[in-house]
Design goal:
The chain is of the alpha/beta class. About 45% of the residues lie in helices and about 15% in strands. A six-stranded mixed β-sheet has the order 1-2-4-3-5-6, with helices on one face. It is globular.
């Protein structure tokens, strides 16, 4: 549906036709989005409340969707109308993403001790404090809640969802960093003798480097408040900001840019830093 409206938009020869195409695109997206979210609900997953979508089907087959770093299940919304009824469709927001809980955790006691030492030697290590201390502790030692965002835990979340909702035939679809998680998941499936239940894997925009290699070297050293300020500065210009154009084409439809802006804002800085620190 998006491809159809985008093609129509390119072929439109007048401002009136473009306006009609944009209106059709907006209404289509709103309809798909409302139908998609009508199947979403809150589920308990490994002691964390997550948003999960389960669209049932009488066919004994299922498709599972795994988003990537900073993503969420709504990124797959356009695919659901096509496959609805043909198989069971399952997607969820990983902890820290979308509408799932964003646990912060408890700061380790060693961080408090290190913080006291840094204060005691403030004159000597002032520069270090500016880059390391922030958000209530020492960032290196207290990426609070990082245990919720390790690759092992994210894989465990996908595995638990697979155990609950799998059918006789199952296809796993992943995007970006989610493709890396699927490679680890395959090893877990073999260990649990569940690999025969997987009929296929679909890896969309796979990455070999991982999220940490795709961010500047200095980002993991930032306190949360500094990363908040940097992200706020990057989002100047709204849908035409650097924050959005890093992920979508400059000529993308306005509705697509708006959704990307919302998705970028949905993942808080403490989750971003915890994801990077856990790698």
């Amino acid at each position: 549906m998006w491809l159809f409206t985008a093609t129509q938009l390119e072929m439109a020869s007048s401002a009136h036709q473009r306006s009609i195409c944009l209106m059709i695109c907006f209404l289509s997206f709103s309809f798909i989005h409302s139908c998609f979210l009508s199947f979403s609900f809150a589920a308990q997953l490994n002691e964390t409340r997550v948003r999960l979508v389960d669209m049932p089907s009488e066919v004994d087959a299922a498709m599972f969707f795994v988003h990537g770093f900073g993503g969420q299940l709504e990124q797959f919304a356009q695919m659901f109308p096509f496959y609805a009824g043909r198989c069971r469709l399952v997607a969820f927001d990983q902890p820290g993403h979308g509408l799932s809980d964003k646990p912060v955790g408890t700061q380790p006691p060693t961080a408090h001790n290190s913080g006291c030492l840094l204060i005691f030697f403030l004159f000597v290590c002032l520069f270090v404090c500016l880059f390391v201390v922030g958000g209530g502790g020492v960032v290196i030692l207290s990426r609070t809640g990082a245990q919720h965002y390790t690759p092992e835990q994210l894989v465990e979340n996908v595995l638990e969802v697979f155990r609950r909702y799998r059918r006789r035939e199952n296809v796993l679809v992943a995007h970006s960093y989610g493709t890396s998680l699927l490679t680890f998941l395959c090893a877990r499936l073999v260990a649990e003798q569940l690999d025969s239940a997987v009929s296929g894997l679909v890896l969309v925009a796979p990455t070999l480097a991982g999220p940490r290699n795709n961010v500047p070297w200095w980002v993991p050293w930032l306190p949360c408040w500094a990363l908040d300020a940097f992200r706020y500065w990057e989002q100047r210009g709204g849908t035409e900001s650097t924050s959005v154009l890093r992920f979508v084409h400059p000529n993308a439809l306005p509705a697509v840019k708006q959704k990307q802006l919302e998705w970028n804002r949905a993942t808080p800085s403490h989750v971003v830093l915890s994801l990077i620190a856990s790698l």
